[in-house]
Design goal:
The structure holds two protein chains of two kinds.
Chain A lengths: L10 H17 L1 H9 L2 E2 L9 H20 L9 H11 L4 H28 L8 H24 L3 H15 L5 H9 L6 H33 L8 H24 L10 H9 L1
Chain B lengths: L2 H16 L2 E2 H26 L24 H9 L9 H22 L11 H22 L17 H12 L7 E2 L2 E2 L17 H9 L13 H13 L6
Antiparallel strand pairs in B: 2-3
Helix pairs in contact in B: 3-4, 3-5, 6-8, 7-8
The chains are: A mainly alpha, B mainly alpha.
């Protein structure tokens, strides 16, 4: 039994379809989504290749928890910063959880990014044609480290303050440009209120913007070039076995053709043994 | 990579893609599982190991322990290796040369290693590098995590102290110098140099005070100390290893 068209379509469904068609006609969203989601990836794509996506998700989590923290945080060196951290930790509903997630998220992100890099390195996945994917990724690693450095100062406690004083001194010790970099980071020759708001702005606006940009580039390269195939996927191993067999066969042919050699049949090693017996 | 190798790779990858499977749902499924587990792990960590609120900043007291986050411990340990300022191992190696060389190597690595081989057991150099770099990072992070935080409060094993030097040692103890420097085996073995024989340099107090006010990085400035304390501290430091042993 087939269903018969018994009248006009449900107006909600009709409206939705019309809207999607309208947007698709102008943006190509349907084709784009299909191209992105249903593109083929090598069959051997492994669990190790989930670390990049994981790093991106952790970054997203850092962004969300960071936005919530920014709703309460005050970049004020005259006690405001410290009090707002205390307030978030002790007073705000689930504030301790959000702050804990942001702090632990930073550590986990460093680990995930490092493991992701190790995977790419060990698999030789940075080789042709994915060299620039690696370059954008290495900038993402450096930006992640800078995120940790700038965020550490914002809690404005003794440990963070003095560790950052030393870290900025290290930057300032570079030859020629060092003193200028030091002044730019400190917003002057001394650590003070301007330093904290500068680190706050770098941590919340400059680096997240840079990371988002580089994630975009990184993803563009990945989608355009395709995810690399594990060098020891089933398909690769089969090809290598076939190549090895072909090489052996060729060697046998060559041995057969040599002048003065005994003309053994195709199953040469076995026959040779029997001949010797 | 030679053009022929590139062509061979492109052909091989096209084949892999043709016999492959769609991104959705196969890759998305694995990605979601691992990313989900990671986020759950972060939440569990945040609940079980609560983040503390530390002591508030007081730039006037220099009683501090400059310890970075654990993921900078390796850089911190590097400072200790190059702590003693001499021609062979200047501090600039740890603060500038080594980190920048490593960063440049990291960024341009694909342009250095251009061979077509991808299997790790056929790339002995890359394999060795992976093992050595990972091992060094783990080892230095472990060292940083276990480094002594400061000096015991009872004092330093130094004798022959006169009155200004006794006061100078108190200034030394009160300002956390021991969290970066070592005197006669007491204190942290870095990032600052060992001060046991500091007096052997033959500096006068004016030179030492000038240094304490504007030292070489990564040491922070002690210009905020009162002049008398700077004077006493300098007397103490300039006699270490010579007058006070």
């Amino acid at each position: 039994m087939t269903t018969k068209d018994i009248g006009p379509k449900n107006p909600v469904q009709k409206g939705t379809e019309a809207t999607i068609d309208y947007v698709d006609e102008r943006s190509g969203i349907k084709t784009g989504t299909r191209w992105f989601l249903f593109r083929n990836i090598p069959a051997g794509t492994s669990w190790f290749q989930t670390l990049g996506f994981t790093a991106m998700v952790v970054f997203g989590m850092q962004a969300i928890t960071g936005i919530i923290l920014a709703m309460y945080y005050v970049p004020d060196t005259k006690g405001g910063a410290y009090q707002s951290i205390e307030y978030i930790t002790n007073e705000v509903t689930w504030g301790w959880l959000v702050r804990g997630m942001h702090k632990w998220g930073a550590s986990v992100m460093i680990i995930v990014v490092f493991l992701h890099m190790a995977r790419v390195f060990i698999w030789g996945a940075y080789k042709y044609p994915r060299e620039l994917t690696w370059v954008t990724g290495s900038f993402l690693l450096l930006l992640t480290m800078f995120m940790g450095l700038t965020g550490y100062l914002l809690v404005w406690d003794q440990k963070a303050y003095w560790a950052t004083v030393v870290a900025v001194n290290i930057f300032a010790s570079a030859p020629i440009v060092g003193p200028y970099i030091g002044d730019i980071l400190r917003a002057g020759p001394e650590f003070g209120p301007a330093t904290l708001s500068r680190f706050y702005s770098i941590h919340m606006l400059v680096i997240p913007g840079a990371i988002a940009t580089f994630i975009g580039l990184h993803l563009y390269f990945i989608v355009r070039l395709g995810i690399s195939e594990p060098p020891w996927s089933k398909r690769r191993l089969r090809i290598e076995r076939d190549e090895e067999d072909a090489r052996r066969a060729a060697a046998r042919e060559k041995a057969k053709a040599l002048p003065g050699s005994v003309n053994y049949p195709a199953s040469w090693p076995v026959e040779a043994k029997e001949g010797a017996r | 990579m030679k053009p022929a190798d590139k062509k061979a790779y492109d052909k091989d990858y096209a084949q892999a893609k043709k016999t492959g499977k769609p991104f959705f749902p196969y890759a998305i499924y694995k990605d979601t599982v691992i990313a989900g587990l990671t986020v759950i792990a972060i939440i569990v960590l945040a609940i079980t190991i609560r983040v503390e609120v530390g002591e508030p900043v007081n730039p006037a007291t220099t009683d501090f322990i400059p310890r970075p986050e654990w993921y900078f411990y390796f850089a911190f340990e590097l400072l200790k290796i190059f702590a003693n300022q001499n021609v062979l191992t200047p501090v600039i190696m740890a603060t500038f040369m080594v980190p920048n060389i490593l960063i440049i190597l990291l960024v341009v690595w694909p342009f250095i290693d251009r061979g077509p081989e991808r299997r790790i057991w056929k790339r002995p150099f890359a394999l060795g590098l992976t093992v050595i770099v990972t091992g060094l990072l783990c080892y230095t992070t472990w060292l940083g995590a276990n480094s002594p935080a400061g000096v015991a409060s009872q004092g330093l094993p130094v004798s022959g102290l006169d009155e200004p030097a006794t006061k100078g040692m108190a200034v030394y103890m009160a300002n956390g110098c021991g969290s970066c420097h070592m005197v006669a085996g007491v204190g942290a073995p870095g990032p600052g140099p060992d001060l046991t024989n500091e007096g052997a340099k033959g500096w006068d107090n004016a030179k030492m005070i000038a240094w304490l006010k504007a030292p070489k990085a990564p040491m922070p400035s002690y210009a905020s100390l009162p002049p008398q304390e700077l004077e006493d501290l300098s007397t103490f430091l300039n006699g270490l290893g010579t007058k006070y042993k």
